[in-house]
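[step 3/7] inverse_fold.run input=structure_tokens len=531
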């Protein structure tokens, strides 16, 4: 019988990780969506907020140049009154001033009115109509038949002056600038072309070219103003994002501080709750281990009592380490500073750990500089640092290894302590991990003697409280070295004795005469004297 066909093995390819969009790409996409929405709701193709701001700048420019425009209108009316009848010139001047007054009044009302999209469109239309009337009035005076006696050059100059002033004033509203200048330029070009001479054709072409130039100039001014507004809006948005991020970070910091306070309170309360029964466990287990009240009926109970006592001691040390770290992180660890000998503390710690090192076949070498002055430091903190470093070296150094303890001077005049071993070493990328609270490297996890990962962080924080430095150097399969330095300010160097005699209490030549000395009062009763 034939074997059934085997099912083909289906290998599922690993899915490509979908990369999350970055913050910059999300911000750019949001900006493009916002710009598209604003262009659909705007009448000028820009943001509605920019439309209102452009009209605001247009109105402010009109108000700031109102007196200049009035002077130009009055001067033109007076000048044309000399060439034509005074009454038509006066009527034209009054009409221009009325249009100008309506323009100024509208600008002031717009600046005081509340901004809204509907109101912005209405004001925009009103300004365009007023500028159109403004341009038509200038067109009427420039193509008046009575002014045929005026030379073409003077008329061209007046036309360029009117177009230039109108273009600059209405640059923030290009459609208004076109409405104010196009009638004048077109009328003057037609007026020159109807004469029929070559010179007038050239002047007509110049009039159209001038209109195009000033329209382009107004458009460029509008674009630069728009770019300025866009940059300011982006800056305001960035400031808003920064303020929001700062508020979020402040809130996170407050939460972290609250969590830290809660952690400190919890640890302080739990230390009392744990130490009270732990002391009883340690005391009774030590009594049972020492067989103070008699031998055990079963000998193995003595070993169990020893295991209970050792576990209790380990738990008590762990609680003490956690409390020390919490006090250091909370900034409530106070140094009990006094004059201590660094070499003496290192030698004492070596003596305490010598038996443990000898049981593992580890040799500890001492390299100390002699006659070193004392340090102004906390003896308990330094002793804890040395014990933590030395116990770590013994823990991770294989049998038959070596450890070097060094103490001496630094190049800047301070003192240093070095603990170097021939252990398995720490990978370079795991050094920040082992220096963090509860951090353990890969070798520590594989080791049979696992700890809580608090020895190195506590040692580093204690050295930081003394103003020193904590440096950890390690290479795999070569060893680890920890160098601790103390600043020169903590070295208590002896002062040299004074070589010169002390100065007299009173300078020479200033002795007080005997008659001016203060008389010494005799005692009322002289005991034991014959006087």
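[step 3/7] decode complete -> sequence:
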């Amino acid at each position: 019988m034939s074997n059934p066909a085997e099912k083909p093995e289906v290998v599922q390819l690993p899915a490509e990780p979908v990369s999350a969009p970055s913050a910059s790409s999300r911000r750019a996409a949001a900006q493009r969506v916002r710009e598209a929405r604003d262009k659909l709701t705007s009448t000028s193709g820009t943001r509605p907020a920019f439309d209102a701001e452009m009209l605001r700048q247009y109105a402010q420019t009109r108000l700031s140049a109102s007196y200049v425009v009035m002077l130009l209108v009055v001067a033109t009316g007076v000048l044309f009154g000399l060439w034509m009848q005074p009454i038509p010139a006066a009527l034209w001047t009054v009409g221009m001033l009325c249009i100008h007054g309506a323009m100024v009044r509208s600008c002031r009302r717009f600046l005081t009115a509340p901004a809204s999209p509907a109101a912005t469109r209405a004001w925009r239309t009103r300004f365009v109509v007023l500028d159109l009337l403004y341009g038509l009035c200038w067109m009427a005076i420039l193509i008046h038949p009575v002014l045929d006696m005026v030379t073409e050059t003077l008329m061209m100059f007046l036309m360029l002056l009117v177009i230039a002033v109108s273009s600059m004033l209405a640059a923030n509203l290009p459609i208004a600038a076109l409405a104010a200048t196009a009638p004048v330029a077109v009328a003057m070009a037609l007026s020159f072309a109807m004469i029929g001479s070559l010179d007038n054709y050239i002047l007509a072409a110049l009039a159209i070219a001038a209109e195009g130039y000033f329209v382009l100039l107004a458009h460029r001014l509008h674009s630069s103003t728009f770019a300025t507004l866009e940059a300011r809006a982006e800056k305001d948005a960035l400031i808003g994002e920064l303020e929001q991020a700062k508020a979020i970070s402040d809130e996170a910091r407050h939460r972290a501080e609250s969590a830290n306070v809660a952690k400190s309170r919890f640890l302080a309360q739990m230390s009392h709750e744990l130490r009270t029964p732990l002391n009883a466990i340690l005391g009774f287990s030590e009594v049972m281990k020492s067989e103070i009240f008699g031998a055990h009926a079963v000998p193995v109970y003595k070993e169990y009592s020893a295991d209970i006592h050792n576990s209790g001691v380990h738990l008590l040390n762990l609680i003490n380490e956690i409390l020390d770290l919490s006090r250091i992180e909370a900034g409530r660890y106070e140094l009990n500073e006094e004059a201590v000998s660094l070499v003496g503390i290192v030698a004492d710690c070596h003596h305490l750990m010598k038996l443990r090192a000898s049981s593992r076949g580890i040799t500890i070498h001492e390299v100390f500089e002699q006659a070193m002055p004392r340090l102004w430091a906390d003896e308990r903190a330094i002793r804890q640092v040395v014990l933590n470093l030395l116990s770590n070296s013994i823990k991770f150094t294989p049998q038959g290894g070596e450890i070097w303890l060094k103490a001496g001077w630094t190049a800047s005049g301070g003192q240093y302590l070095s603990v170097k071993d021939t252990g398995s070493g720490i990978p370079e990328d795991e050094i920040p991990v082992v220096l963090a609270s509860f951090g353990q490297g890969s070798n520590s996890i594989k080791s049979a003697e696992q700890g809580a990962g608090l020895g190195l962080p506590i040692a580093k924080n204690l050295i930081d409280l003394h103003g020193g430095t904590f440096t950890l150097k390690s290479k795999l399969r070569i060893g680890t070295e920890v160098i601790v330095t103390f600043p020169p300010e903590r070295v208590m160097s002896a002062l040299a004795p004074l070589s010169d005699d002390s100065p007299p209490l009173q300078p020479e030549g200033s002795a007080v005469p005997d008659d001016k000395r203060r008389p010494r009062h005799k005692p009322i009763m002289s005991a034991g004297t014959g006087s």
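[step 4/7] annotate
Strands lie at 337-340, 363-368, 374-378, 402-409, 415-421, 469-475, 479-486, 491-492.
The chain has 14 helices and eight strands.
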